[in-house]
Specification:
globular; about 5% helix; repeat; five-stranded parallel sheet; 13-stranded mixed sheet; about 25% strand; Alpha-Beta Plaits; glycoprotein; Leucine-rich repeat, LRR (right-handed beta-alpha superhelix); Leu-rich_rpt; mainly beta; signal; 3 domains
Length: about 450
């Protein structure tokens, strides 16, 4: 929308408002405390602006709030303890700000909290052991903060639904506790059966990787975490040997893979079989182990997951040209027809994988079924990994051959509004693997301008 200026306290008089959406503008100033008067508010969407100042305590008394999304601003100060009253809130997205101080342990009382994203802030103090009491938490992402000298609470082993815990230290179906100056041993996380992504990189963790003993060993984590697909403990002080049981005895199905990242530690040997099963990758460069020339295959450079611009497919190479803004659908089933797509900028904020390519088909199925579209109506024009890691992509949604004019097929106005509202109101069903998303833009071609 290109809005600037500040948020008026008069917004607090909109007593029946359900969605307050000022995403992706240039709004500055502070968040008015008067917004806390809008007791009907369900979605507070202020991400991607230039907001400063503290979080108003009054926001903690919004009884119907489902989502507070204030990420990518310059908000500072502590998290108000009053936020522990947000009994209906499922999503706290506050990453990439300057939020500081101790995480209030009182937030452990939130019965519906699913996603707690506070990475890239100035948080300090300790990790609240009470968070193990959150009954529905799936993603806890706290990487790039200042939990100096703290340890991972042993109680976190009881977070049975957790998919992604990031301290980067980061544990979960995506990264979360990286670069937090955590110390000590890694607790026994073997009772978190859905854990898919464990990232403890850039900390001060020490000790060995034992081949025996059930508690406090990485071996036990792999023995009892059948969904774990990424283990990253880069840049710590782990010593001793790497047991091959980490990657042996694993059954990987379909598009599943296992990536083990142990670079830049003090590891000296691999015990057991050094032959990797299919779809398993192990990185050990920067360890004394790499002085052994027989293990050179483990010590190469790791490249980032591919960023892809899709480009035309064979389906459209021999089709006649379409008049702009119409184009051929690259995913049409071998047919040449012109259509006017909807253009969507979309970003996965905390995905549970580091390589999108094996999950592409699953994502296409997930999004088209959630939008009640056919599979051949979605085309992923490009995708790119960003810092976080977050996955940005540009999508094209094509109409099917129901409505057409002289130039090609189009969506009718009601369908445009339906699809747009699903993206903007987060009514697309959630996904454990793909995690929360954000809408970057929903661009309408001129032919659709009247649809809104």
């Amino acid at each position: 929308m290109g809005l600037s200026g500040s948020l008026s306290p008069e917004l607090g008089k909109l007593l029946y408002l359900q969605i307050l959406d000022f995403m992706w503008n240039s709004i500055s100033g502070s968040i008015p405390k008067e917004i806390g008067n809008i007791t009907t508010l369900e979605l507070l969407l202020l991400n991607g602006n230039k907001l400063t100042g503290p979080l108003p305590e009054e926001l903690g008394y919004l009884p119907n709030l489902d989502r507070i999304q204030i990420d990518q601003n310059n908000i500072s100060g502590p998290i108000p303890v009053s936020f522990a009253n947000l009994n209906k809130t499922k999503h706290f997205h506050m990453n990439n700000n300057s939020v500081s101080g101790q995480i209030p342990p009182e937030l452990s009382r939130l019965p519906r909290l699913v996603h707690f994203l506070l990475d890239n802030n100035n948080l300090s103090g300790y990790l609240p052991p009470e968070f193990s009491e959150l009954p529905n938490l799936l993603i806890l992402q706290l990487d790039n903060n200042h939990f100096d000298g703290t340890t991972i609470p042993a109680s976190y082993s009881r977070m049975s639904k957790l998919l992604k815990l990031c301290y980067d230290l980061c544990v979960g179906f995506s990264r979360s506790l990286r670069n937090c100056n955590l110390q000590g041993e890694i607790p026994d996380l073997s009772q978190i059966p859905y854990l898919g992504y464990l990232d403890l990189s850039l900390n001060l963790l020490n000790g060995t990787i034992p081949t025996e003993s059930i508690s406090k060993t990485i071996t036990s984590i792999f023995s009892y975490l059948p969904r774990l697909q990424i283990l990253s403990i880069v840049n710590n002080s782990l010593s001793g040997s790497v047991p091959s049981t980490i990657w042996q005895n694993r059954t990987l199905n379909g598009n599943e893979s296992l990536t083990v990242e142990l670079q830049n530690n003090k590891l000296t040997n691999i015990t057991g079989d050094t032959n990797l099963p299919p779809h398993v990758t192990v990185w050990l460069q920067g360890n004394p182990i790499c002085l052994n020339t027989n293990l050179a295959s483990f010590c190469g450079s790791e490249s980032d997951a591919e960023n892809t611009n899709q480009g035309p497919t064979n389906n459209t190479l021999y089709c006649r040209l379409c008049p702009p803004p119409y184009e051929h659908s690259p995913v049409s089933p071998g047919l040449c027809f012109c259509a006017a797509p909807l253009l969507v900028g979309y970003r996965l904020k905390s995905p549970g994988f580091s390589d999108f390519r094996p999950y592409r088909s699953m994502f296409e199925d997930y999004l088209t079924s959630g939008l009640a579209l056919l599979l051949n109506q979605l085309y992923i024009d490009s995708f790119k990994w960003e810092e976080g890691p977050r996955l940005k992509m540009y999508l094209k949604l094509f109409p099917v051959n129901k409505n057409r004019n002289d130039n090609g097929f189009i969506f009718d106005g009601s369908e445009v509004r339906r699809i747009m509202n699903m993206f903007r109101s987060w009514t697309i069903p959630g996904s454990d693997i793909f995690g929360p998303y954000e809408l970057l833009n929903f661009t309408l071609l001129d032919i659709y301008k009247d649809a809104t």
